[in-house]
## 1
Amino acid sequence: MKAFILTGGSIAPEHIFEKPNKEDLVVSADAGYQNALRLGFDVDVAVGDFDTMPAELLPKTVERIQVPAEKDVTDTQLAVEYAVKQGATELIIIGGLGGRLDHTLSNLAILEDMATLGIHTVITDGGNRARLLCATSTLIPRHPHLRYLSLLAVDEKVKGVCVEGCRYPLKRATLRRSFQYAVSNEITENCALISVRRGRLLIVESSDI
């Protein structure tokens, strides 16, 4: 099952092309409900402490799971945990990038957590899209609005990194967390092929906006 997690923060709705189907689960985290409205998504469940959006604004048709403001996890993490408990095997997290740096880093860390569970996860705000690659390969289609492709080492050493279909190819490169240089690449073919032999790699697509 695929789940869409709507978080707060600014988004570029015109550049978000991921849309839920009827069988997908849609969960909003606190003020993420407002982003769901902007995108025209029908929310199934709203979770959070609702300190940035009054819970009373939620329609009665949306299930509400309200928690105390003093808690050990963020609203986004709560939404993700709920979706996983419902059986989600793929997550699309919308929002949660930019704004407060601590929230951004916390949300990006969710990619690592989900990778350990074998759950494919993407986080996007329309101007950026991030995913984690762990000792495997993937194809990244060229996107009309996401010009730049950056590879960021999560582990201290990420070995055997290969990049094809880009302006700056790589062949069996080693990337280090303490020296990130594989940034601002550009996809020149229909798609880029990225592979990693050992380690975890954060793949970030970015636009000029």
## 2
Amino acid sequence: MEDGKIIELFFRREERAIRELSAKYQPYCFKIAWNILNNKEDSEECVNDTWLSVWSAIPPDRPSILAAFVGKITRGHAIDCLRKKYAAKRMDMHITYIEQETEIIDKMISHSLDDAIAEKELIRIINEFLRSLSEADRDIFLRRYWYLDKEADIARRHGKTVNGIKMNLHRSRKKLYKILKAEGSLL
């Protein structure tokens, strides 16, 4: 079923909307949760929580890209689940490294935005940055920072070494930093 029709089902408050959403996006959302949690039961729970959250959010929200909307919600639930799970324990090193890397990006963006730059401007800048990357570099960047794939998995996907992927990510972060600085988005 097309995304627009699924959204209309949500607006009409038809329970079939959740079945259609699940039929279309369950594997996608499960993969996002799995990459963060590496646990089947926790991942399934996050996906189920996603459906409830989408039910609560639509309406009033009308997402323009349903896949990104549900992916973001799933990612948030999975990260929350991981934080609760490891609150008193040492986190998985995979997630620890990603947190360190995303903190760098977060600092570049959230802590250094000039008050005059609107959220839409930031989205434009990031979209232009992603378009400026080669298809492979864009996939590597998104696989790491959106899907939270492990560097080893990305390396296998692209036929590269883990060190090659780390270097690629470093260069991409550096390029994003320069773009944000040139746009006046950094202090």
## 3
Amino acid sequence: MENKTNKILLICNAVLLLGLIGIYVIHFTGVGTKSKVNTDATAPLVKEGGLTIAYVDTDTLVAKYQYAIDLEAQLREYTDQQKRYGQQQIDAFQADYNNYLQNGSSMTLTQQQQKEAELKARAEKMQTLEQDLMAKIAEKQAAETAKIMNAIYAFVREYNIANQQFDIVLTKSASLYANPGMDITNEIVDGLNEEYKTVKANQQ
């Protein structure tokens, strides 16, 4: 049973880690809501092959974007809740099973059969507990990641409309080399944080 508990905890941690990695990798897909743009953008227009290109350093963005920071904390708390729930279920089953081993002989045959059937059903449920926890954590992660993806995508789109009209906005990780003059990360981070601050204030 201890191995089962450790396996569940390891899986929960692995799912959370994969979810957070996903936030780093897939920011710029999805559809968001209207965002406030930073009209004081400083990155110059840089043309390459007739295209106007800029890039965003997603590592810096996620590290400084308060929504992403808050999301990480929320996901960790949710995962901890699921881990505690899983442990409670295992502990309760183990306690009932041990109690039956100690006191089952005092039961009638019918009571023994009923208790054994109950324990068997619960044991089978324990076999799928880890998959159930994984599914719940993955569902939560997907929903929250979609929100942050939408926010970033929408902001970059409207930032571009309001400022330099870039043909392409890349992530820095997609390039082997990027001219620092093409970096608009600070403008994007500042704008996103200002937008998030406004959203939080309106929700209070």
